[in-house]
Write a structure and sequence with these properties.
heterodimer, A: mainly beta, 7-stranded mixed β-sheet, 11 strands, B: mainly beta, 6-stranded mixed β-sheet, 5-stranded antiparallel β-sheet, about 55% strand
Chain lengths: ~110, ~110
């Protein structure tokens, strides 16, 4: 039973399209995240939500819009996809915002923009 | 300056060798420190937290040096299955912001 699951695992699309990645966690965690890992393997936080409220919104283009319908779900919608958006997007969750948090990651969604 | 810096490697070591990685961080107010492991085309997974007093888990030992602002990971008696990228993670100030290093790639050779 997967703790953090995200779909789709692979996504290949054309520039200019709009796409979504879904994430769900069954750990009962309060906090969820989206991370982007680029071709150089650098893992950078994009968004953080705590109990459905946005906590961190790093300098991400506003073409990226997260949505959290409840604390177990955090979806990522991307408008007008660009070549530079090609990366692996990881969803993650943690028990709470406070203290020394351990992140549990989903398996990643590999986005390729052609 | 990056918040967390690691030598990307690769480190190619024979089975049974001892290997050590260091990671430096820029924010002296950082509170929590971790090592994560990421296998090729997989997600990062927590390997171990790093405590001020240092901690050991089997063949793995993690240490923190606050004065010099670095953490280290020592792997003894390397196994083939230890081949992976090891990510140093440090908490920043503010709301639960974790900074990842770019990772150190380890390959253990038979």
């Amino acid at each position: 039973d997967t703790a953090v699951s995200q779909t789709p695992k692979y996504l290949v699309t054309q520039m200019g399209n709009d796409k979504s990645i879904k994430c769900e966690q069954n750990l009962g965690h309060d906090t969820m995240y989206w991370y982007k890992q680029d071709s150089k393997k650098f893992l950078k936080i994009m968004f953080s939500y705590n109990n459905k409220e946005l906590i961190i919104n790093e300098t991400v283009p506003n073409r990226f819009s997260p949505k959290s319908p409840d604390k177990a779900h955090l979806n990522l919608h991307i408008n007008s996809l660009e070549l530079g958006d090609s990366a692996v997007y990881f969803c993650a969750s943690s028990q709470s915002l406070a203290g020394a948090n351990v992140l549990t990651f989903g398996a990643g969604s590999r986005l390729t923009v052609l | 300056r990056k918040e967390v810096e690691q030598d990307p490697g690769p480190f190619n070591v024979p089975e049974g060798a001892t290997v050590a990685f260091n990671c430096t961080y820029s924010n002296s107010a950082s509170q929590s420190f971790f090592w994560y492991r990421q296998d090729c085309r997989k997600e990062p997974k927590l390997l171990m937290s790093v405590y001020s007093s240092g901690n050991e888990d089997g063949r793995f030992t993690a240490q923190l040096n606050r004065a010099s602002q670095y953490i280290s990971l020592l792997i003894r008696d390397s196994k083939l299955s230890d081949s992976a990228t090891y990510l140093c993670v440090v908490t920043g100030t503010g709301a639960n912001n974790l900074f990842f290093g770019t990772g150190t790639r380890l390959t253990v050779i038979p």
